[in-house]
Structures are given as C-alpha cells and as structure tokens.
Amino acid sequence: MTTIIWFQRDLRIQDNPALKYASQLQLPVLPIYIFDPKEDKNWSMGSSSRWWLHYSLQSLQKKLKALGLDLFFFQGATLHALQKIIDKVDAKHIVWNYCYEPSALMREKKLMKLASAKKCIAKGFHANLLFVPGQMTTKQGNPYQVFTPFWRCCLKQEIGKPEGKVTKKLRLATYSKHISLGALDLLPHIPWAKDFPYLWQPGEDNALKKWKHFLRSKIHQYAHERDFPAEMGTSMLSPHLHFGEISVKRIFEDLLQNTHAEVFLREIGWREFAYHLLITFPHTPSKPLRAQFTHFPWKRKAKCLKAWQKGMTGIPIVDAGMRQLWQLGWMHNRVRMIVASFLVKDLNVPWQEGAKWFWDTLVDADLANNTLGWQWCAGCGADAAPYFRIFNPFTQGKKFDPKAEYVRQFVPELRNLPNSWIHTPHLSPKSVLEAAGVYLGKNYPYPIVDHDLARKNAIQIYHQWTKK
Ligand SMILES: Cc1cc2nc3c(=O)[nH]c(=O)nc-3n(C[C@H](O)[C@H](O)[C@H](O)COP(=O)(O)OP(=O)(O)OC[C@H]3O[C@@H](n4cnc5c(N)ncnc54)[C@H](O)[C@@H]3O)c2cc1C
C-alpha cells in the first residue's frame, strides 16, 4: 500500500497541501514527476521553460531527500504512466495539486475516474492560486471580463492560510522502473542558454530568497520603478511562480502587514484574472476572446517576424527587448508591451505568432499570463487596450529608458550614441552616427517600418474592418 504524490507545477515542499496530506496518511510515499513532451499539443513546453524545469526538479529532488524521500521521473503519456504506476505499487492514495489549465484539468478528471476504478483514492488540492479560477461571477452571474471589479470581488473572499512545512521524515516507497532526471532530456544540446545562470537560480530556496530580498529592499519603490526596465525594480518571481516554487498564498500572507503592498498585489491579481479567463474561455490561447476579431485581417509576414524575433527591427527599444528575451529567457513587462504592440500594430502580424515565440523563449512562459498579455496588447482580449491605442516605440524608449542603459546593455552596437539620439538612430545626424561607429544598414538596421505610416495604416485597417 502506497501514497503517490504527483508533482506538476507545485515544485516546492512548503505550503504544499498534497504533500502535507500525503505525510499524514502513514503509508510509504512515492513522489513522482511525469514529463510528456507531446502533451498539450500546440502548447508543449518551450525550450527555455524546459531549461528551468530541469534545475527546478533537481532542487525539488534534493529537498525531498532531506525528508527521507526522493523524486522518481517518468516520460510518456501522463495518464498511461499514472495507470501503470498505480498498478505496480498497489496505490491506496494518489494526491496532487491542481494545475489550472484546460487540458490539465481534463487529465485530472480522467485520473479521478481511472483511480476510482482501481479502488485508489484520488484527491486534488487547490494550491497554486489564491482563488479557484472560473468561480467568480458578476451579480448577473456572468464571468468577469474587466479586471478591477474582478479583483474587488476577489479581495472580499476569504483566503486560506498557507500550510505549514512538512518536517518529519517520511517513508519512501520503492519503485524500480523510473528514469533519471537527465533522461528527460530537458537541457539544450547547443549552449544557447549559457547566460541564463547569471540571472536565474531555479528552485524553492532561491525563490524564497528572492522574495525576501524583494520584500526587504524593493517593494517600497515598486510603484515607481516597475516601469523602468534598466532598474530591475520588479520581483522577477514569474518563473518561480509559474513552476510553483513559491506559494502565492505565502506571498499574500507576507503582504498583509506591508504598507507598500497595493500595487504589487494588483499584479498578483492580474495573474489570478489571467487564470480566471483561461479556465472560463479555454479557447483563448489560440483564438481571440472577442469573437469579432476572429477574421481580423492580420498578415503573415515572415521577414518582419524574423527581424522582430532576432531583435533586428531598427527600433532600439524593441531590439533590446527581443535580445534580452533571447539572451536571458525573460523580458521586462513594459518592454513586453512595447514589442507586442510593435508586432501586431506596426507590423500587422497576428498576435498568435508573438505568443508562440514567447512560449518557446520565456523561462516564465505561462499559458494564462501569456494569453492575457498578447490579447491585451492586440486589443482582442478582456479589458484590453483598445486596438487603436498604438504605442510609439521611440517615445516609449525615451520615457522608460531615459538614460538608455537598457538599450546599451542589449544593443551594444549603439552603445556610443548620446542619450539624445540613441532611441532614434535613423534620425541622428550623420556626424553623430559616424562618431559613435554606427553605420545604418551595415552594423545596425534602418527601421523595418516607418512608425507614423504604420500607425496610420493600422488605424485604417481597423476602421475598414469595423465597417464590414
Ligand atoms: C505580451 C505579454 C506576454 C506575457 N507573457 C507572460 C508569461 O508568459 N508569463 C508570465 O508570467 N507573465 C507574462 N506576462 C506578464 C508580465 O510581463 C510578467 O508576469 C512580468 O514581467 C514578470 O516579471 P516579474 O515577476 O518581475 O513581475 P512583477 O512586476 O514583480 O509581478 C509579480 C508577479 O505578478 C504576476 N504578473 C505581473 N504582471 C502581470 C500581468 N500583466 N499579467 C499577469 N500576471 C502578471 C506575475 O506572476 C509576476 O511574477 C506577459 C505580458 C505581456 C504584455
């Protein structure tokens, strides 16, 4: 008789209700992780996330060993693997924390049935969000589609306290047919992620360290600094939150006594909103929430998309963002909005193309947050920026990177341009460019579109389309 604990996106031992429950059952425990590279079809895990996952699992395995346990790895179709394991160990219980994505919830439902047929008690726990998504409705009983009333409603609900730590040693069940972490083959074969470790240390201990540091020395400035990409004024917790290395209930609890918490807490609220939308409207990762956008005349321009992906658009703030993403697997939120607006409005490329690129390159790639972010920028989602509000990437660059530290870090070929010209090299006097060693069309591109024309064009397309 065994208790299986199935880890998914809850790679922590603190405030882990499934682990806590398993620890109270007095049976040998079998902690497992199953990786199915083909799962979730269009949204199987991207390359940067896999990098993160490898180190996060390594860290969890170490933490479980300190509890007398281990982490057993499996590869292949999840339900099939679960069925085999339940049979092999004659499982009495299988426990897990819910993964709030449409296909994961479907899988978990099937697991309930499968386990019950085998007389194994299956139990899922709510652990990775503050509120169960999809349950909050307006007075009329409709799902919320605007953030502020959604969040107001959330904050009136009770939020349970985080679970304590499991501290006592547990008995490990035995199972011989598992594979090693390395055999999951999560790490890249060519070293494109070589710079990631300068910025990122996955794992629960590092997530907690980062959170404590943010609380101690950054949260009081967050409201002012969060929009300036060179300041590093945000928490940078997104990949840790995505993989469940830190509990959002724990974050909420720590914020209760903090007088600077409001703005930061709202961002945590956007995460809740994103999951609420994803569960309520499960088609939205690939289709617009506002159905009238289904036939919007986007254009698939392969050359423009490539230039955007490579950070070679000739628009410094866009290129800096796209190169930060490639180099470090992450991009600052303000810049995510700028590059997304540029792709969908200036280049008229479908938002789904941008979402896919982010999915593969972000260490924090998250189906709910990524979908919300892209649909917000494209104007086709809930509470989205109106389509005709188009970011000017040059003024955004000057406003949010006034000393051009961000652009200089990620677009070093522009490094020697003065602050007054660095965001608009194409308008710079020839003498200034020459003095800085910038040769447009040679070592840095001309802008791939004229922003003023592109803006007029985007608005014209929108008006023609809305008249139809
Ligand atoms: C086009 C686009 C795509 C995005 N894709 C993702 C994604 O795949 N994964 C992801 O986690 N975030 C995504 N975001 C949201 C946001 O950019 C990141 O969460 C944020 O930059 C992460 O940095 P941080 O942890 O320092 O954030 P902080 O400012 O410190 O915020 C704390 C936490 O709140 C949550 N959060 C913050 N802003 C948002 C937001 N706008 N929407 C939802 N949750 C938010 C995140 O979990 C974040 O870690 C996207 C935004 C845009 C505009």
Question: How is this fold's topology laid out?
Answer:
Layout: E1 2-7, H1 17-23, E2 29-35, H2 47-66, E3 72-75, H3 78-89, E4 91-97, H4 102-117, E5 121-125, H5 147-155, H6 196-199, H7 204-217, H8 222-225, H9 238-242, H10 248-255, H11 262-280, H12 302-310, H13 316-328, H14 333-346, H15 351-361, H16 367-378, H17 393-400, H18 405-410, H19 419-422, H20 430-436, H21 451-467
Parallel strand pairs: 1-2, 1-4, 2-3, 4-5
Helix pairs in contact: 3-4, 11-16, 13-14, 14-16, 15-16
CATH topology (level 3) name of the largest domain: DNA Cyclobutane Dipyrimidine Photolyase, subunit A, domain 3
State the fourth-level CATH superfamily of the largest domain.
Answer: DNA Cyclobutane Dipyrimidine Photolyase, subunit A, domain 3
Number of domains: 3
Q: Tally of extended strands? A: 5
Q: Return the average pLDDT rounded to an integer.
A: 96
Number of helices: 21
Can you offer a commentary on this structure?
The structure is a single chain. This protein has a five-stranded parallel β-sheet with strand order 3-2-1-4-5, sandwiched between helices. The chain has helices spanning 17-23, 47-66, 78-89, 102-117, 147-155, 196-199, 204-217, 222-225, 238-242, 248-255, 262-280, 302-310, 316-328, 333-346, 351-361, 367-378, 393-400, 405-410, 419-422, 430-436, 451-467, and strands at residues 2-7, 29-35, 72-75, 91-97, 121-125. The chain has three domains: 2-126, Rossmann fold, CATH 3.40.50; 129-161 and 204-280, Serine Threonine Protein Phosphatase 5, Tetratricopeptide repeat (Alpha Horseshoe); 291-467, DNA Cyclobutane Dipyrimidine Photolyase, subunit A, domain 3 (Orthogonal Bundle), CATH 1.10.579. The relative contact order is 0.11. The chain is of the alpha/beta class and 468 residues long. The chain contains 21 helices and five strands. Helix 15 (351-361) runs antiparallel to helix 16 (367-378). Residues 1-130 form the Photolyase/cryptochrome alpha/beta domain. It is an enzyme of class 4 (lyase). Its cofactor is FAD; (6R)-5,10-methylene-5,6,7,8-tetrahydrofolate. Belongs to the DNA photolyase family.
